[in-house]
Structure formats: structure tokens, C-alpha cells
Amino acid sequence: MFESFNCAGLYIAVQAVLALAASWTSSKVTDRSLTGTVIDSGDGVTHVIPVAEGYVIGSAIKNVPLAGRDITSFIQTMLRERGERDTSLRTAERIKQEFCYVCPDIVKEFNKFDSHPDMFAKYMVETVSQRKIEVDVGYERFLAPEIFFNPEIASSDFLTPLPTIVDQCIQASPIDVRKNLYKNIVLSGGSTMFKDFGRRLQRDLKGLVNERVHSSEKRSGTKSSGVQVQVISHKRQKNAVWFGGSLLAQTGEFRGYCHTKRDYEEYGPNIVRSFSLFNAV
């Protein structure tokens, strides 16, 4: 960076920490904490990353082999099976972005579509020859994002729902930070942008946590104060990592944390190892 781009200063941060910082713009966040669980889902993979006081708990990170690309592929398969006139990857991608959402109950959603045909949508595709093709958009509107919560719909290799993965991630973290990890679950990446994604995740995860709490109360015979489960959604979550970095870079103390070109010339490339968050990766 110093030799090729002649940058004035360099600071290496962890993506999950920057995503946590981006969540500070949400009205749900009252404490600018760097402790929380980050669900980062882009095109190729989904990561569940616990962070305590700005340090990643590496041993508890979970990877989910489902993300935006799988949702697009699922939509494309449904279009092909239905015999639509345009089943290109580009069309499937646009349908995913414009029409898909997360529903609270897929059985009830099927019934809604069957009872109200107006819930089916039309997508107009313009071909290279500038002809317009009409593509029907049906059950894939809610079925495609459902693979996060019922992965068996799309895969026989990975069958664990995302809420269960998040619960396992937090339970694998040190006991003294678990409550704060449940209380501050932050979404990051384009594949978390589906309508009601955060609401469904919070509901399903809260169900898992409450079940464990009730079971513990039954065994011990005591009453628990419960565990608060909160999923933070905000307008910037698609580009949360970049936005979080932008927020931190605007703080007055940021320059003091950067390494300068003079530092690099004096100490060499090993200066990057002195970053505390860098060491926590």
C-alpha cells in the first residue's frame, strides 16, 4: 500500500467489527458496542462471526455454504421447471432482487398464493433484439430465501437452518459474553436484505433460546430472567463493512491508530502485526 499507492496512513480492520460499527446508525442500537454476532451473507458464502469488545472469537466462527448464488440458482431451476420463456441467470438474479421476501410460515404463504392469484407477479425481460418477454413470478418469491431457514428445500448436503447455526455459534463462545452476543445480532451483506429476513431470524432464534431456558428452569426448579434476542436490521447493511469503515475513519482518534509511511520506512512491513484487531483474526 505504501510503495504502490503512496498512501498517507494504513489501518487494517476486521470486516465483522466494521459491520458492528455500521449498525450504530440503527434506531435499535442505544450503546455503541463492539460486542455482537455478525451474520455476513454475500454471493458465495455466509459467515456467523461472534465479536467481543472488538476481538473476533475465532474458535466459534461458523460457515454456512448457502448464500445469494444458491438463491439465484434455486430461482433459475424453478423457472426452468415451469417452462418459462426466459430462464437466464440474469433474469433469476433480477427476480431475486425485486420480488423475493421472507415469510413467517411457508404453508400459510402457499395458501395465500393459491387463494389470491394477484400475489403472483410478472417480470418483463427485454431481449437483445429488444423484444419483450413476460416471465411469471410465483412461489419462488418466498421459497427462494426460505433455503436459509429450511435448507433441505435446495440441498441434501447441508441441512442445518441459519437460526440453529447462530445459536451454536453463540453457545460455542465464552459464557460471560453470550448474553451480549444474543442481544446484538447484526446483519451484513446483500443476501440479508430480503424483506422480513431479520424478523424471521429473530423469531426462530428466540424460539430455540426460550426452549433451552424453559428446559433449564424445569431441571433446576428456579425461574430465569430470560435471554434477550435482538437482530439489528438497518438501511446500510448491504454495504455494512464499507460503511462501518467510513464511520470509524471519520472519528477524531482514527489517525492516531494508523501507521504512517514514516513508520513503514523505519520499521518495515512487520508494523502491520501491531494492529490489535488484525491479530484477532
Automatic annotation (TrEMBL):
Xref: Gene3D superfamilies: 3.30.420.40, Actin, Chain A, domain 4 (3.90.640.10)
InterPro entries, sorted: Actin, ATPase_NBD
Signal sequence coordinates: 1-21
Single GO BP term: Arp2/3 complex-mediated actin nucleation
SUPFAM superfamilies for the chain: Actin-like ATPase domain
GO cellular component: actin cortical patch; Arp2/3 protein complex
Pfam families, per the entry: Actin
The keyword ATP-binding appears for this protein: yes
Keyword terms, alphabetized: Actin-binding, ATP-binding, Nucleotide-binding, Signal
GO molecular function: actin binding; ATP binding
Similarity field: Belongs to the actin family.
Protein name, entry field: Actin-related protein 3
Classification of source organism: Eukaryota, Fungi, Dikarya, Ascomycota, Saccharomycotina
